[in-house]
Design goal:
Layout lengths: L1 H23 L2 E4 L3 E2 L9 E7 L9 E6 L3 E5 L5 E5 L4 E9 L2 E8 L4 E8 H10 L10 E4 L4 E9 L3 E8 L4 E8 L2 E9 L6 E7 L4 E6 L5 E7 L5 E8 L9 E8 L5 E7 L4 E6 L6 E7 L14 E4 L11 E6 L12 E6 L1 H11 L1
Length: 356
């Protein structure tokens, strides 16, 4: 009996030591639990968005762009429930307000900002049926007048829908307001002296825009959005002299309270995901890789990502992270892009350890 107790204590000590050292590292690894089918050979998966079904979270819908062909719809097992031949939709984002959901997409072939508007009750019903495709024609659109690239929606003053579009070959960022079934251009800004910007995310509660610059410099920046809808208080969060390798791409927020949480950024050059404090000065906290397990391959060269931090079902009890995988090597065919679905549980354990 004494020997058994001693063995159990030794095992417990080793386990605690292992966990301590695992989360003490600045970098850790997690694996996907589901993945979507890879896109067709003439396609290119790029950016995801998640519609949270507040009536039944298990019936939430994931959208994923194929930037040459259209938009896929997936359930929470990564199974395809629809495809819209909407054209060259590069990036996608959405906002839900009251009983409506507003879906935004950048049409890079026509350099438009596209908007689709659906009742949440309709999306719920179609998700129950396992059959939903975004309409091929946008419900509303406007000309961007530059090479449309990234997109991020927002909600300001708890009621006003806005959307930003970034420029593929220059520093410009445009801001629209959507109201009364109309897109109204509000302002045009420069993302510093950026040569190319794509990934962006708007923090509704803190009125802050995060944006990544690719190509020449590789910089992640934040800006405050003033009451006059001007971008102010620029902060250079990170760059290639710090923790960014290659291009910073997709950005997403992991909100822990209304105003606190984390910014997650894809560091494409080393296929890692950097974690920063949501609030200024946006301290770098650590990073993680998405590695292969027995069933699903790892993730490399990620473009877009998205996060929902709430209970969805038994597979995602602590929230969902969806990332684009630049090369789906798990198939017995020519690898293309797809999307990977991950539980936020391990990410949260790491963050809790870092905070303590």
């Amino acid at each position: 009996m004494l020997r058994t107790k001693s063995f159990n204590l030794l095992f417990l000590f080793i386990l605690i030591f292992y966990v301590h050292n695992l989360y003490a590292l600045k970098e850790f690894s997690i694996s996907a639990i589901f993945e979507t089918p890879q896109v067709k050979f003439n396609g290119n998966a790029d950016d995801p968005a998640i519609w949270l079904n507040k009536n039944d979270p298990n019936l939430s819908i994931i959208f994923g762009t194929d930037k040459y062909n259209g938009i896929y719809s997936y359930n929470l097992k990564g199974e395809t429930i629809g495809f819209s031949n909407a054209g060259s939709i590069n990036n996608i984002d959405l906002r839900t307000h009251n009983d409506m959901t507003y879906i935004f997409g950048t049409d890079s072939a026509n350099n438009n900002i596209n908007v689709w508007v659906y009742k949440n009750s309709y999306l719920h019903q179609k998700s129950m049926e396992g059959d939903f495709s975004i309409d091929e024609e946008p419900h509303f659109f406007d000309k961007v007048n530059f090479l449309a690239y990234g997109v991020c929606g927002g909600l300001i003053n708890n009621k006003e829908i806005i959307v930003f579009v970034t420029e593929a070959k220059g520093p410009r960022v445009k801001l629209w307001k959507f109201s009364n079934n109309n897109l109204e251009i509000m302002n045009t800004f420069n993302n510093s002296n950026a040569s190319e910007s794509e990934g962006c995310v708007f923090d509704d509660e803190n009125n802050k825009l995060f944006i990544s610059e690719e190509n020449e410099r590789g910089v992640i920046r934040s800006y405050s959005l003033s009451k006059d809808l001007l971008l102010t208080n620029k902060i250079n969060i990170d760059d290639r002299n710090g923790n960014v390798v290659g291009d910073p791409e997709g950005l997403a927020l992991l909100k822990t309270t209304s105003n606190d949480g984390y910014l997650i950024a894809s560091s494409q050059g080393n296929s890692t995901f950097n974690i920063y404090d949501r609030n200024k000065p946006h301290k770098f906290i650590g990073s993680f890789k998405i590695t292969q397990d027995s069933f699903i391959d790892g993730v490399t060269d990620t473009d877009g990502l998205e996060i929902v931090n709430t209970y969805l079902n038994d597979d995602f009890p602590n929230g969902l992270l969806v990332v684009q995988d630049g090369k789906n090597t798990g198939e017995n065919t020519l690898p293309k892009e797809n999307f990977k679905l991950l539980s936020l549980s391990e990410v949260k354990k790491y963050l809790i350890y870092q905070e303590n």
